[in-house]
Design brief:
Largest sheet: 4 strands, parallel
Number of helices: 24
CATH architecture of one domain: 3-Layer(aba) Sandwich
CATH class of one domain: Alpha Beta
């Protein structure tokens, strides 16, 4: 696709990023066939190809309106189109740049600015934890929709004796996960310890930056990344840990993107590259864990699981099949949805809060497909998907590390080297 950047944007970094991706596009339309919003609405402007044309018009100096903003906002950034694209268009980078350029041109309504600012501040780890504690006390009088988004945390699992660690990693706690799904972090640390890996939660490391980016705060996202680099860099530089692990696939994708996000920052580029190289999803570790855990899981705790692969895992990190193989090797029966296995569930970070109609429609489609597996529970790998699906599912929705932890039971930890 040919594009001529208008004179007013000729030196704009976002314009250059978007233009570079636009020039790879060959108009084939394969992306529309796998786009959740296009399949729901049937509107060309709600598909990747239509949004690409909107960004092209913006770059060439055409008038930009709130309608442009609306169609860009409706994009889930699920990256299914990137997996499908035969030309290698990095659509996620393109649409993010297009959103920033559009926001700079047309701004946002006062209500939208207030809503996004409120979510940015509320979803910071400390404020969110306090708000959740208050909400749990008020649970009986809360509206049903809010109660559904407020899962009751399970009781802590029995203590398990741990072997002396032979490897140490840093674990990202995350923003909302410690408050809403605290058992995920506990299960992660317990399972890693059973395999001889000590997972330390680094004090001072908070949001990975992804939520702020979703909420139109690019500067805030970069600030969060720099803060985390400052916290993690000494432990990496002095060999105290050899990896930074995220047990939420959206956070893992964000961490792996630090080198690209901070490439233009001379003070942080080198350290961000090291952090990105050390970053890994819990799914990345699973093939290493399986040999050390196999044979130690209680048979009665294993069984069929409906597997939902988050977009950030299968499209963002391209880790399709890794969790399924690991669970199968551990004796579980993971069953991906036959229909729409690659489609987004509608969570998409803050998307389900900003676009509830589309998010709910996608969730119903996803739950219907998962129901067809016949499995009694759903497992996933990302906090947003688990909360979003769990709010409307009649079956429990859990992180895959929780079912592994539960099947291990309270036995002794392995002493096998990692």
């Amino acid at each position: 696709m040919r594009v001529r950047i208008s004179s007013e944007l000729i030196d704009d970094a976002d314009a250059e990023v978007a233009a570079a991706q636009l020039r790879k596009c060959v108009h084939c339309g394969f992306c529309n066939a796998t786009c959740p919003t296009y399949r729901l609405t049937g509107d060309e402007l709600d598909g990747p190809r239509g949004r690409i044309y909107l960004v092209k018009q913006l770059l060439e100096g055409a008038e930009v309106s709130r309608l442009t903003q609306r169609h860009l906002d409706r994009c889930l950034t699920c990256l299914n189109c990137e997996t499908t694209c035969p030309s290698g268009v990095a659509y996620g980078r393109l649409v993010d740049a297009g959103r920033r350029l559009t926001d700079a041109r047309v701004g946002r309504s006062p209500f939208d600015r207030w809503r996004r600012a409120l979510l940015r501040e509320l979803l910071s780890a400390r404020r969110f934890t306090a708000a959740v504690e208050v909400a749990r006390r008020l649970r009986p009088i809360l509206p049903r929709a809010l109660r559904a988004r407020l899962p009751v945390p399970p009781a802590p699992a029995p203590a398990r004796r741990e072997a002396p660690p032979v490897r140490r990693v840093l674990l990202l706690a995350g923003c909302v996960q410690p408050a809403l799904l605290p058992n995920v972090g506990r299960a992660t640390r317990r399972v890693l310890a059973a395999a001889g890996i000590e997972a330390r939660v680094a004090a001072g490391a908070l949001c990975c930056g992804a939520l702020r980016e979703h909420l139109s705060d690019h500067a805030g996202a970069l600030a969060a990344m720099r803060r985390n680099v400052d916290v993690w860099w000494p432990a990496l530089a002095f060999g105290e840990v050899d990896a930074i692990v995220a047990d939420a696939s959206a956070c893992a994708l964000a961490l792996k993107g630090y080198p690209q996000a901070l490439a233009g920052d001379p003070l942080y580029a080198e350290r961000a590259a090291a952090v990105g190289a050390a970053a890994c999803d819990l799914a990345d570790l699973l093939p290493q864990l399986v040999p050390r855990l196999a044979g130690r899981l209680r048979p009665e705790a294993r069984g069929p699981l409906a597997w939902h692969a988050p977009c950030t895992l299968q499209h963002g990190q391209r880790l399709s099949g890794v969790v399924e193989r690991g669970l199968r090797d551990l004796g579980f029966d993971p069953r991906p949805a036959v229909r729409e296995a690659a489609m987004c569930c509608g969570s998409a970070g803050a998307y389900s809060l900003l676009q509830p109609g589309i998010a709910s429609a996608l969730r119903e489609r996803k739950l219907a497909a998962l129901r067809e597996t016949g499995a009694p529970q759903i497992v996933s790998a990302n906090v947003g998907c688990i909360l979003h699906l769990g709010a409307a599912s009649e079956r429990p929705v859990r992180h895959f590390i929780e079912v592994i932890d539960a099947a291990l039971g309270p036995g002794d930890a392995s002493t096998a080297p990692v």
